[in-house]
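Problem 12. The chain below contains 504 residues. Write out its predicted structure in token notation.
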Amino acid sequence: MAPTFSHPILSLLFLLLTPLFSSATTHENNPFLSSTLSFPKIQAKKLIRELNLFPKVDVNTAVGDSSVSGPRIVERRFRFPHLGDSGASVQELGHHAGYYRLPHSKDARLFYLFFESRNSKSDPVVIWLTGGPGCSSELAVFYENGPFHITNNLSLAWNDFGWDKVSNLIYVDQPTGTGFSFTSDEDDIRHNEDGVSNDLYDFLQEFFKAHPQYAKNDFYITGESYAGHYIPAFAARVHQGNKEKEGIYINLKGFAIGNGLTDPEVQYKAYTDYALEMGLIKQTDYNRISKSIPACEQAIKLCGTDGGNSCMSAYRVCNNIFNKIMEIAGDKNYYDVRKKCVGDLCYDFSNMENFLNEKSVRDALGVGDIDFVSCSSTVYQAMLMDWMRNLEVGIPALLEDGIKVLIYAGEYDLICNWLGNSRWVHAMEWSGQKDFVAASSVPFVVDGAEAGLLKSHGPLIFLKVHAAGHMVPMDQPKASLEMLERWTQGKLARTETEGRLAPM
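Solution.
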């Protein structure tokens, strides 16, 4: 049964960017010896299980209301059950759940959550995109920067550092088939950033029609992991729409990428350097594994020029670098090398699935019998041809037009490590490149203590966050909230501390 709303009105790492096979992989099942395209999907399922997630289906399929006369957005205010009583009514909480019927699709619906700011409705509108590709943004809602955390008894506790404390916060389950988003037609599954960014742009247009009081607020795009692909493409699409006056003007001020995959050619080359620096491999391992880098570089270049199967080849060749590192690192958690994976379990996010599968929760959200697909192996595989594409190429034009760009990374993440991110940011060619490279780094101070190292020039900021892995808002919630607030207020790059030579 498709989702229903009883009184419709017009008014969600983290990355599966993960190794192709584990340290236990043998020669007999080595995927590089196989030409089948099913292997990445099998691996995606294995990696989903490492998060203690067990979606019932590979992709969310259902039949929606095909009526073209109804509203494109169907939304309701809601209050989660099991939420401690704050004394606020549903109206006062300002929490919304909705479905958006994609116009450029056969039968696709995007599910979203919208949390009005706990501070002021005039705060910026911030949209968050979780990566994967194919993971639900509810991962961020409940484990990172959303209004709540899930306790072990499946009740909700308010997050003192939720980003809704300083922004009006939107989470979208995307691409189609992820989370509670669904379609009945496999042709609606997206394979590249054109499809993803157009869907998100269409959603924003309809969202601001339904919420015109927020249309003039400052708007920021944020996310992490594979969203390092989504975000630059989405920002460029919004900027293009504004320039060409396609619809409602969206007051785009900037975008932020956390531990993202943006420029694969630069970032894959950094794996061995980071692994050596962190003691995951020895110099002899470094010398041996680094011999694979030229083949990876060439494969990525061919993906950029030829596309198609060249991109699949690049995915296989380049991930071999990561795999060789993990064969040596063993049970290290590649999202946070301070930690170990125990057996098949690196993180336990199962409470999210259990909570969202409760009938009372589903009734509150109005999702009917739609499956919750925490991470979709089908969406993961569908985006493989997009994986090795360079999304850095569109960022300079945005910088030149004054769009603010924040690239941040937790220092203990291997999979999208700070070193690779720092290198592509420094290598990016734009009018301020020379001054950015020459700029000194300064401490990012929170509560009188250094929480990271920051480097900036003009609209560009790079921030290495201390004591954090892949999911910065989960590991350093207060620092991440401070980061967002200062950045959106134009105060992040300001410091009273004298700069010093950048180690980045």
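Discussion. The longest strand covers residues 449-457. Students who got a different answer should revisit the alignment rule from Section 12.3.
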